[in-house]
Amino acid sequence: MPLDIITIPCLNDNYAYAVQDTASGDVAIIDAPDAAPILRAVSFKGWGLNQILLTHHHDDHIQGLDLLRKAVDAPVVGAKADMHRLPELALGVEEGDSFTLGHQAVQVYDVSGHTVGHVAYYFPESDALFTGDSLMVMGCGRLFEGDAQMMWNSLSKLMDLPPETRIYSGHEYTAANAKFALSIEPQNKALIERVDQISMARARGDDTMGPTLALEMQTNPFLRAHLPEMKAAIGMEGAEDWQVFAEIRKRKDNF
Questions:
Q1: Residues in CB range of 66: below 8 A, 6 or more apart
Q2: Would you write out the chain's pLDDT as a tens digit for each of its 255 residues?
Q3: Buried b (16+ CB within 10 A) or exposed e, 221-238
Q4: 10: part of which helix (H) or strand (E)?
Q5: How many Å separate Cα 19 from the centre of its chain?
Q6: pTM confidence score
Q7: 213, 167 in Cβ contact below 8 A?
Q8: Could you tell me if residue 187 is left (phi over 0), alpha (psi between -120 and 50 degrees) or otherwise beta?
Q9: The domain 3-253 is classified under which CATH number: 3.30.1490.20, 1.10.10.10, 3.60.15.10, 3.40.30.10?
Q10: d(CA 20, CA 113)
Q11: Beta carbons of 65 and 87 less than 8 angstroms apart
Q12: Taking the mean position of all CA atoms in its chain, how far away is CA 12?
């Protein structure tokens, strides 16, 4: 049975996610930017809360946790490598670990780059990947703690997942990311079509989460650094893939 996934807007442009294993009814929250909208969303659905999963230590992903745990007693899962700067964890996880939400397996990926110790959570039975601020929809996180080679290695691991995997990231940055992508590959037909779809979705007030990995690899410039056409587009033929990624990230930082 699949996950039931709710995207919960928090703060200015953050997202938390409530996910229910529909077979067991067990529910997890992924990241806790703000307790109030999370509790409203779960209450509206009539759900309980069984787990809280944290992707990384930044305040805009954990600052609602104290209030959330005053309302619900749920164990917190986060990166073992980040236990010194995360709230107290019931379970510290690392690359290759797996645990369950009800009947759903949850696999852990180390996606360091935005921060060192950042993790992503992959639900293989439901083709769902929760990436925090590592792989963003149409983009990737800034390199606050890691370097370009580290982030490229992290993204490369995610690119090996099944193409039907759906991406749920930590912020609504998609429209701005798409504008940047067009500045890099203005002739990319799949990108041009997607930019129009994103514009229409945002005009309706819809979020842009849940695109497939296959679509991201066609249109997200940060997942295209290994391709000859991307290297040609930015004048870096013959460069290492991670060096091309680094140049794209630098351009985005200054866009």
A1: 35, 87
A2: 589 999 999 999 999 999 999 999 999 999 999 999 999 999 999 999 999 999 999 999 999 999 999 999 999 999 999 999 999 999 999 999 999 999 999 999 999 999 999 999 999 999 999 999 999 999 999 999 999 999 999 999 999 999 999 999 999 999 999 999 999 999 999 999 999 999 999 999 999 999 999 999 999 999 999 999 999 999 999 999 999 999 999 999 999
A3: bbbbbbeeebbebbebee
A4: strand 3-10
A5: 14
A6: 0.97
A7: yes
A8: alpha
A9: 3.60.15.10
A10: 29
A11: yes
A12: 17
Task: Tell which phi-psi region holds residue 46, choosing left (phi > 0), alpha (psi between -120 and 50) or beta.
Answer: left
CB of 249 closer than 8 Å to CB of 200? no
Please report how many Cα atoms fall inside a 13 Å half-sphere around the Cα of residue 4, on the Cβ side. Answer: 14
Q: Mention every residue, 6+ apart, whose C-beta is less than 8 A from residue 206.
A: none
Residue 155 is encoded by which pair of tokens? 């993204």
Q: DSSP string spanning 137-162?
A: TTEE---SSS-HHHHHHHHHHHHTS-
Query: Identity (one letter) of the amino acid at 50?
Result: N
Give the sign of the dihedral formed by CA 152, CA 158, CA 163, CA 164.
negative
CB 123 within 8 A of CB 131: no
